[in-house]
Every structure is written in C-alpha cells, then in structure tokens.
Sequence to fold (385 residues):
Amino acid sequence: METSIPPKILFYVQHLLGIGHLRRTATLARNLVRAGFDVTVVSGGHPINIDLEGAEIVQLPATRATDLFFKQLVDEDGNAIDDSWREMRAAKLLGIYHRVTPDILITELFPFGRRQMRFEILPLLEAAKSEMKPPLILSSVRDILVAQTKPGRNDEMLDLVRRYFDKVLVHGDPNLISLDRTFPHTEAIKDRIFYTGYVVDRTGVKGGPEAPGYDEVIVSSGGGAVGHNLLKAAILAKPKTLLSNKTWRCMVGVTVEEELFQELKEMAGPGVIIERARKDFTTLLMNCALSISQGGYNTVMEVLHAKCRAVIVPYAGGLETEQTLRAELLAAKGVLQIAEEDGLTPEKLAEKVDLAYDGPPASAEIDVSGTDTTVALLRGWLAER
Fold:
C-alpha cells in the first residue's frame, strides 16, 4: 500500500525579550501537526518548556536581548555575542536546514523584524533559494509591526520580501487593522500578502468551582521580565477594588530573576498567590472573574476567546508600539478596559478593575480562524507546485 509522505515544514523563531513569538509559533505548529504536516521548529531563544505536540523542537545555542531596544544580545552565560558566535550559530542553522530539507520554510517575523539575526537568516534563505527546487518560503507575521524610526528600514524589508519570500502570512483581521497601517509598502507586495485571521490557543477548558482559576483574578505579564511593575501595582491595587475578597493569582514570567520573584512573594498579602507562568494559562482565563494583563498578541486573543472581563495594560517600553495600538482598537469597540503603563498606580489600576468588572465580558467580532486558515493556505500552495 502506498503511503503518502507528510510535507515537511521548517519553522524558524527567535524570541529575545518576551516569548510571544514562540507561543504563536507553537500554536501554529500544533495545528499544522494535527493537519498532517511534519513540523520542525528551530528556536534561538532561551529554552522554554512549551507544548509543541508532535512537532520536533531543535534548540539553537540561545541568545537574548539585555535592553528594551534590543541593541545588545548575549549568550546563555550573559556574554555579548561576537562574530565567532554568529558564525557558529549560522552554521548550525544551515545544518538543520540541510537535514530537514523542508518543503516549506517559514521565518517568524523576519524580514519585518529580527534584523539582528540577519547573520544567520540570510544564509538560510540563500541556501533555500539556491536549491534546484526551492521550498516554499513564507514569512509569518502578526497584525501590527513596530513603528520604524530609522530611514530606509521599511525599504529594506520590502527588498527582502521581493528577493526571498513567496508569500507573507499576516495573522490578523484587516477589518480590525490592515498591515498598511504599520508597513507603508504593503501595496507593493499585495499579491504576496495573505490574511489568516488571528491565531488563538483554544486549549483552555471551562469548568465549575473546582476548575483552575475559578472566580479568581488572574494577573499576568507574559513570559518575559518586563511586567514586574504591573504585578506590583496589581498586588497593591487588590484591597482597593470590588474584587478584594477574591483570590488574585499573579503569574510571573519564566525568565524573571529569582530575586524579583521573591520580592513579589514578600509583597503578597492574604488572598494573593505568586507563582511562575503556567501551561494551563488559557484554562485559568476561561474560568476567572477578571484578567489583568499586558497587551501582547497572544494574551489579548486568548482573553477574547475566553470571553472574560479584562483590563489590559499595554507594554510601551523601548520602541514598542504594537500593544498600545491593538489595545486601543479593541477598547474602541468596547470589549476591554485599558490602563496606561506610563504612570500606572494601584489607584488607577483599581479604578479600571472596577469598571471592567461592572462591564460586559470581553468579546469582539473579529476573524480568529488563524490556525485553520494557515493550514488551508499551505495545503493549497503545495498542491499548486
């Protein structure tokens, strides 16, 4: 009996500060595996225990950013990376590519971001393009790009798309925000751009009083270390809110230093639980009384899917603008409350918590079919080759 060979995907992702890119990649990878693809995820950020179901994870020697502007990258021991380190990693990535020989090569965010990783992504793309039969080369990008402040950067992105990429998967809904709002050259590559809808992790399970997170306030700050002030403000806001009698569960990013984690534990009063980020975060959202979080792509979409009451505090450090823009668009639809990160106090946060608790649950009429549409697009494109 003839057995069909699953199409192979090599999915490159590099997280540098938070882990949002890795989480979206993992959600896509799980659904692609379920759809019959043979998926290898190659990750260049610090190792994270994340569910990839049947996808293979290949961990490169890790690097991370040490500042909010991503200017300095360090290795696993905290040493600044140098040219020899870059050459070592580029060679490892090429080795993985030649081992996998993918039918589809996907780069998360690049060329619309991760410019720091050109030293290894450009050789990877050159190797793919030089094949007798190149793989389908795709860019996987969220709905909103970080605003560029340096002249020529958008031109550089346009040139790279034209040179290397067959298609661009935009994981968003143009009825909420289209890519041209944050990428001025969208019209020039409109034939390569495909909106998938938002990618949502739907693994959360709704339950009764025994369910994780039931009737609690879930406070989260992503997987990285930039939400420490939000967690502290939430702890101090608790007694000032209508929800002071509920359990407040504060989720601390997995990369947050132990010293900061202990500081939060010492601040926590009765009814406040401090713990590291959990795999069942989406289930906590499904059962909570209210969510307080930053405005990252994944968390916001999971909040909307869970239909829980929510306060969003968009992260606006460094050059980041995407969380604020997305949150403002959704707040304009009346689906959640926003508290500004700049000048955030326990009193201001408490006021927003009470407003959100008195209001309707979060919900929005937006396209959240990102995983299914991505699978359908990839199947269709392979069939055309």
Q: What stands out?
A: Residues 108 and 214 are 34 Å apart (CA to CA). The two ends are 25 Å apart (CA to CA).
